[in-house]
Automatic annotation (TrEMBL):
One of its GO terms (biological process) is double-strand break repair via synthesis-dependent strand annealing. Signal peptide: none annotated. It is found in: Nucleus. Residues 77-258 form the RecA family profile domain. The keyword Nucleotide-binding applies. It comes from the Eukaryota. InterPro entries: DNA_recomb/repair_RecA-like, HHH_XRCC3_RAD51B, P-loop_NTPase, Rad51_C, RecA_ATP-bd, XRCC3-like_C. GO terms for molecular function: ATP binding; ATP-dependent DNA damage sensor activity; four-way junction DNA binding. This is RecA family profile 1 domain-containing protein. Belongs to the RecA family. RAD51 subfamily.
């Protein structure tokens, strides 16, 4: 059935005409992709999805419609995982959304892993302090896990989180609630995502999944001529990540590398992967340096590339002993 035949609000109908999609196609697209194609808001996309499900009766793609509804509801509910810094949380409207996949891309040394480690500690705080009162699972695909840096961040938590009573910080077993996995190839990654990670989530031991980095395995295992198989594997990994995120109300953070083309820096893995993430963030290392007390840091900038609930904007930050903190004038 054609969506044009349904009773849609004029604004939604105009978005459908721009997107030129049939009902069945709509239900197979991500919420982010629908917003790109139609230019509609979250609430308008929700009405479009409901109409599309009606048009496809009696056999709509149920999993797709439930996934879209889950994304919209969680974005609108305001439940977030704090970064642990008021300046960066302001940029992200409270932090990472708990439903959906967030990508953090950037060049080597930009501070991506630093921010990922910081989130692994932030998730352990109670909801009143922006956490989810649980642990994190950190999957390394190329480098060894930076345990010394994590231990330093733990020691400096009282400095970073001055908003949290020291008595609470001293009671949190930070080091015992970060579960580290290593995946040297796509097969081991899929085993980890299909067996070990669901076990941790089911037991309530973790509420954050980090993959660092998602591009490494696809770059080393496939040649340019293998693009079709690479895309197939990429979509399989993405589907698993979305399912875990929605089923367990868990934020997923994928650290990504970048490619350089014509003097431009863009996230790796191309458009096929870009369509699978709900939020894309980028960290840049700038030429300037900043100082605070006895510390100096290369200036970084965290930018929102796209997100259905965020404006394209950015904040300057530095990497200090206690973690990544926004820089204010």
């Amino acid at each position: 059935m054609d969506l044009q035949q349904l009773d849609l609000r004029p604004r939604v109908a105009a978005g459908v005409r721009r997107g030129e999609r049939a009902a069945a196609d709509v239900l197979r697209l991500s919420g982010l992709e629908l917003q790109r194609l139609t230019g509609l808001s979250l609430s308008d996309v929700q009405q479009l999805l409901t109409a599309a499900a009606t048009a496809c009766r009696p056999h709509p793609p149920v999993s797709a419609i439930l996934l879209h509804r889950g994304e919209c509801l969680r974005l609108e509910s305001g439940l977030r995982l704090s970064v642990g810094c008021p300046v960066l949380d302001q940029l992200l409207r409270g932090g990472l959304p708990v439903g959906g996949v967030t990508e953090l891309s950037g060049e080597s040394g930009a501070g991506k892993t630093q921010l990922a480690l910081q989130l692994c500690l932030s998730v352990q705080y109670p909801a009143q302090q922006g956490g989810l009162d649980s642990g994190a699972v950190y999957i390394c695909t190329e480098d060894s896990f930076p345990i010394r840096r994590l231990q330093q961040l733990i020691r400096e938590q009282s400095c970073l989180r001055s908003d949290v009573p020291p008595s609470l910080i001293s009671t949190l077993p930070f080091g015992d609630r970060v579960y580290v996995e290593h995946a040297a190839d796509l097969d081991s990654l899929q085993v980890c995502l299909s067996r070990r990670v669901p076990l941790l989530l089911t037991r309530g031991l973790v509420r954050l999944l980090v993959i660092d980095s998602v591009a490494a395995l696809f770059r080393c295992e496939f040649q340019a001529a293998d693009w079709l198989e690479r895309t197939k594997q990429m979509l399989s990994v993405s589907s698993t990540l979305h399912r875990l995120s929605q089923e367990f109300t868990t934020p997923v953070l994928c650290v990504n590398q970048v490619t350089h083309t014509c003097y431009l820096v863009s996230p790796a893995l191309g458009l096929a992967w870009a369509n699978q993430v709900m939020v894309r963030l980028m960290m840049r290392r700038l030429q300037a340096t900043v100082a605070r007390g006895d510390q100096r840091s290369a200036l970084r900038r965290l930018e929102v590339v796209f997100a259905p609930h965020l404006a394209r904007d950015g904040r300057d930050a530095g990497v200090w002993r206690e973690g990544v903190r926004g820089v204010t004038d």
